[in-house]
Design a protein that fits this description.
Elements: H1 2-18, H2 26-51, H3 53-60, H4 63-83, H5 97-110, H6 126-131, H7 149-152, H8 174-192, H9 194-202, H10 206-212, H11 231-257, H12 265-295, H13 306-330, H14 336-365, H15 383-407, H16 411-417, H17 422-427
Amino acid sequence: MTALGTGGLKSSVSGFGSDQFDESDDGERKMMMRFFNWFYFFVSIGALLAVTVLVYVQDNVGRRWGYGVVAVGILCGLGVFLSGTRKYRFKKLVGSPLTQVATVTAAAWRKRSLPLPSDPSMLYDVDDKAAAGEDLKGKLKLPHSKECRRFLDHAAVVDRESPAAASSWTLCTRTDVEEVKQVVRMLPIWATTIMFWTIHAQMTTFAVEQASVMNRAIGGSGFLIPAGSLTVFLIGSILLTVPLYDRLVAPVARRVTGNPHGLSPLQRVFVGLFLSIAGMAAAALVERYRLTESADGVTLTVFLLMPQFLLVGAGEAFTYMGQLDFFLRECPKGMKTMSTGLFLSTCALGFFFSTLIVTIVHKVTGHGSNDGWLANNIDQGRLDYFYWLLAVMSAINIVFFTIAARGYVYKEKRMADAGIELADEEAMIVGH
């Protein structure tokens, strides 16, 4: 039940939030940028309360009270959300994005042997669909692009010799094809952001294991910080980074780059990936130092782990905000529901990839009685080698990300090059 509820919420809330802003209005477009920043800020506030206040209530008052506080909080949030129902903007649904991808791919494959016209205007498009009296479902006519033309453009080729009536599985509009192309363009960016969440997974697994064998006492009070509570530093770093970026980094970036948004979404993701590499390097150095001192019987303070938590936390703020902004902004308007799914899938795949790497490293480095780098007893393993491995993999990944990012052209620029402004795009409903 919790998984179903969380899945429905996470996959919808950010997209619904972006629907409240008119991208054709410069002022609202800037407000949407800030919305993503502060949206994640308050998400992190909730996470901070979960690992501090809620844990305290459960440990000192009772689990029933802990669950009760959460239930009341959710009900209050639901009430606040429903109170704005009359003021929300609702965008018209234009069908399933997955079905559209499937129909375009299937139609292109079926007609792959047909010749492509030299003039793209000869491809079947929404103009032809409107002339036939078919429902356009609010589709916006998009300019033709050459990417993937040899394959996907076949979906919009009219087969004059086919006696069968055309359907969406045999004939798609050029606009449908262009929307699928936009998704294809984003896939290299999508693939190269998965590695960040693999790094992030270490902060809630091996970093906690590191903390469990270190001195967690605060001063001379005798109070021991629970090893799992060190994620407070991760969340605290996020909470610090978001307002610093909004109030300090973004204004400076606007003046330096001339970009009214400050750093572009892909630039923010790059910063996040770079910080994750620095975080892994810091983690490896601290673990090496800890192993050396542990061999001499010295137990180091747990606060030595703060740099890796702070670096990865700051990286998460940049990566999360950049990814969310990128996928929501660049996904076609008719496929907006897919944007959040693409973003969240990088998080999920990052954790799965972490599990895969751990399994491979354990099998490759462990022989017989030797547990290898990732031993059950952390003092007998070489976790620092594992951290260095992740740092190197992330460094290679950021090279591929940079190549993909440098070759990516934002939708806004592509539309402008075609002589279409964002304001025109909103009004380009065919037939008007």
